[in-house]
Amino acid sequence: MELFFNPFDNLVCILLGISLTVWFTLLLVFIIVPAIFGVSFGIRRLYMKTLLKLFEWATLRIERGAKENNHHLHKPYSNAIIAKEPTSLEEEIKEIRRSGSNKDLDSASEFEMSDIFYFARRGVASIMDDEVTKRFSAEELESWNLLTRSNNNFHYISLRLTVLWGLGLVFRYSFLLPLRVTLAFTGVGLLVFLTCVIGLLPNGRLKNFLSEKVHLMCYRICVRALTAIITYHDSENKPKKGGICVANHTSPIDVIILASDGCYAMVGQIHGGLMGVIQRSMVKACPHIWFERSEVKDRHLVAKRLSDHLEVKTKLPILIFPEGTCINNTSVMMFKKGSFEIGGTVYPVAIKYDPRFGDAFWNSSKFGMVSYLLRMMSSWAIVCSVWYLPPMSREEDEDAVQFANRVKAAIARQGGLVDLLWDGGLKRGKVKETFKEEQQKLYSKMLVGTQEDRSRS
Amino acid sequence: MGSRASTLLREEEIEEIKKETGFSHSQITRLYSRFTSLDKGENGTLSREDFQRIPELAINPLGDRIINAFFPEGEDQVNFRGFMRTLAHFRPIEDNEKSKNAAVSEPLNSRTNKLLFAFQLYDLDRDDKISRDELLQVLRMMVGVNISDEQLGSIADRTIQEADTNGDNSISFNEFIKVLEKVDVEQKMSIRFLH
């Protein structure tokens, strides 16, 4: 019995050894070395083009299949379901009253029972479709991308398509996923190790130079770990030292995407666990701004530390996400004014993901960080475009809120996103009572205003 | 793996809802998507909290009354059928429906049913009458703190005076219909679908 196992064992060991060596050599040559030098072989773009062709074919097959079986296809409501009337409260109520009034318009009544129609219709319309709640869940796709997680037409599939999907599954989970996980560990491990080493050097030009190189290299490895295919536009507007970089937020990956093309000082809360280890070692090499959980509430402290950082003109630009939370990349929500009060030049950046290859939005109420990363690494790829917008500064006659809205509008316009005034905090919290009070005030003016006219006449 | 529409709507159900509410097939599937996205508990029904999570509804002064219209007396959960039945009140009246014969039971989006929906927003205790108190309470919801009790009281008195024809100091549904007979209810209480 022993003789039977031994040569078999040896064979297995040898094969394992060889394949691992080959694996790591390939990894090194095709991925890690180019990452160090910032060069690309173009493999990922080729991959992307092939995938696109595949998706088109898949969609055609589903549509054909649905027609043959006479089923209705579920079309995602990426656009609005209902027609929204952009008229104001006053205009609409006046219109309702005008249509029902048999009195002449001069003696306008103060209250009509029909006024309630306005509120009823508005209310029910918002139940059918509202601008805010759909921003906190993943965007629905027009065509299928061979991932079950984004498919609502799963029933109407032909055999060929199922086989293709199966192959895709095998490819993604048995080849791409291990590859990416290996790269991720390599990237993070190198980051922690090298930044600790650099931290031992005395502060000076050499340290800064090395720190920049190390950060860039490790982030590039992480980018490849996600198979992220990023197109940078207008790189001449890249954020410079002493400025603030502001971007729309969709997922924690945003940081990796921006930081692999430039060096930033990050701002954030210190976490425990692995994140904490990474954060603590990063700050040894280069001055990032990490806050303790208790300090986050203290707005003055936060503002002071940020402006202190900006004072030193040789320090790296600060990277901030003013929305404060992850939004699903179809819109830009309210920018918190804190980052716009501290002065300095603001460099807006717009990030738009292409959802066909993998949905990058982190729905933190549905997925924890680890399951999110696993989902990312088992998608086809993360494809996105980054636009560096020209720098903006606060003008004389505008306050922080107006400035924030101006920057937000520019980012929304460039990225093709909807510009919303609603607060991203509505993901978890309730809307403030003041908005309801505004509506009540507007309506009261209609009732009381006419009474004043009456008493005058 | 979990496809999002794991409890897909069956074709028979869609047909039933179509007959009952008059919505088209694609409108029903879209509203079903909407229903499931509001249903955070994923148990096939909506509670009042699920509605209150919609910011645009939360800032509507009559938001709570509108939410209440979805829940039948004493119940705290509404399923998809009930959801659609209530939304059907706001379906626009198509031209070919106006000439339908009265043998067919009245569609949910008829003028009378639209007026009934509005009437029930005022009628807090569901006793088919709008009393002075109820009118005052609803007015208070609409104006907030901006108008004094006396002013609001006189507005309520005037409104009841104009509408009340049988002298019981409250507004019945028929009196309500009479007051609003000239208003373009069909248009003002309808929501147009884009598809």
From TrEMBL, chain A:
Pathway this chain belongs to = Lipid metabolism; Phospholipid metabolism
List the Pfam families: Acyltransferase (PF01553)
| UniProt record, GO biological process | phospholipid biosynthetic process
Location of the protein in the cell: Membrane
Q: Which domain of life is it from?
A: Eukaryota
A single Gene Ontology CC annotation of this entry is: membrane
PANTHER family, alphabetically?
GLYCEROL-3-PHOSPHATE ACYLTRANSFERASE 4 (PTHR23063:SF37), PHOSPHOLIPID ACYLTRANSFERASE (PTHR23063)
Family named by the database record: Belongs to the 1-acyl-sn-glycerol-3-phosphate acyltransferase family.
Q: What is this protein called?
A: Phospholipid/glycerol acyltransferase domain-containing protein
The protein's organism comes out as: Pagothenia borchgrevinki
**What taxonomic lineage is listed for the species of origin?**
Eukaryota, Metazoa, Chordata, Craniata, Vertebrata
TrEMBL record, chain B:
Where does the source fall among the domains of life? Answer: Eukaryota
Going by the UniProt record, its keywords in alphabetical order are: Calcium, Cell membrane, Cytoplasm, Lipoprotein, Membrane, Metal-binding, Myristate, Nucleus, Phosphoprotein, Protein transport, Repeat, Transport
GO CC terms, sorted: cytoplasm; nucleus; plasma membrane
Q: Where in the cell is it found?
A: Cell membrane; Cytoplasm; Nucleus
Q: Where is the EF-hand domain?
A: 26-61, 110-145, 151-186
User: Mainly resides where?
Assistant: membrane
Q: Name one GO biological process term.
A: protein transport
What CDD domains has UniProt attached to this entry? EFh
Task: Output the Pfam families linked to this UniProt entry.
Answer: EF-hand_7
A single GO molecular function term of this UniProt record: metal ion binding
Q: What is this protein called?
A: EF-hand domain-containing protein
Lineage from the top down?
A: Eukaryota, Metazoa, Chordata, Craniata, Vertebrata
